[in-house]
Design a protein that fits this description.
9 helices; alpha/beta
Length: about 270
């Protein structure tokens, strides 16, 4: 009887522990505030930042130090033509990001002293337990040594890039016919649909294809390819035609034995 009571007590204790853990996780999720991201100069000069922000993938509040704005202004007034255009685009990006509704953008007033902008970003992020949004690979490495989280648009683009590019080859399995005439349909490992020309008779077979072009829209990515065997020129050995050498018949002109040599007529004068 005591053993039975002990088992029931342990079951009640285990169930209570599970409920406490679940409620604790809910409280943590409800009280979790947005993370702050300090944006550096390289990220603001990247035209992809505004496009990514407008999709809603960035929900953390953005903080732009005044020193970063000052650096953009210096580059916009510089002599380098390319940097001048990119810096002006970065200043315009600040105003565009202020209009995005998924987060708040705040310009932080930090002292404009001789401290390098990268060092100031590291100080602010470490002091406020925040992360840094940057495209600077070296800054990302330095931040990792200080255990500061970083977000990199180049890393995001690398993850989202297509596994195959036009001109590359791979093996796929044709699973059905396409909507167009003489087309077959295959799928890559990531679920991308591939339309293969001249593959309607290859259903159920694994073939080698070469990618030609891709069509990327908001609904997904579709790639178009061609069969390697159907498009690659088969270098067949040319048939060697033996030409019969016809030797011309040479008629031998044999001197006729009966041929009479012309006689010269002698005229005698009487």
């Amino acid at each position: 009887m005591e053993f039975f009571i002990l088992i029931i007590t342990l079951l009640i204790l285990a169930e209570t522990t599970v409920l406490v853990i679940k409620n604790g996780k809910k409280l943590l999720l409800n009280t979790n505030s947005k993370r702050s991201l300090y944006v550096d100069t390289s990220a603001l000069m990247d035209p992809r930042l505004v496009a990514v922000a407008q999709t809603g993938f960035i929900s953390d509040n953005l903080l732009v130090p005044r020193s970063v704005i000052h650096e953009l202004q210096l580059l916009a007034d510089g002599k380098d033509h390319d940097k001048r255009l990119r810096a002006r685009a970065g200043l315009d990006a600040v105003r565009e990001l202020e209009r995005v509704v998924f987060f708040d953008l705040t310009i932080v007033d930090d002292p404009l002293d001789h401290t390098p902008v990268d060092d100031r970003l590291l100080e602010l992020a470490k002091a406020n337990h925040s992360a840094i949004l940057t495209n600077d690979f070296n800054l990302q490495k330095v931040a990792a040594t200080d255990h500061i989280d970083t977000l990199n648009l180049n890393a995001l683009a690398l993850v989202l890039r297509n596994e195959y590019l036009p001109g590359e080859r791979t093996n796929v399995k044709i699973i059905s016919t396409g909507s167009g005439p003489d087309q077959g349909v295959a799928y890559l490992k990531d679920g991308t649909m591939v339309v293969v020309d001249h593959a309607s008779n290859k259903v159920g077979k694994e073939v080698e294809i070469e990618f030609q072009r891709l069509n990327q829209t908001a609904s997904g990515t579709m790639m178009f390819a061609k069969l390697v065997m159907a498009t690659s020129a088969r270098t067949a050995k040319p048939k060697t035609v033996k030409l019969k050498t016809v030797q011309p018949k040479v008629k031998s002109t044999k001197a006729k034995s009966s041929a009479k040599s012309p006689r010269s007529k002698l005229t005698t004068r009487h």
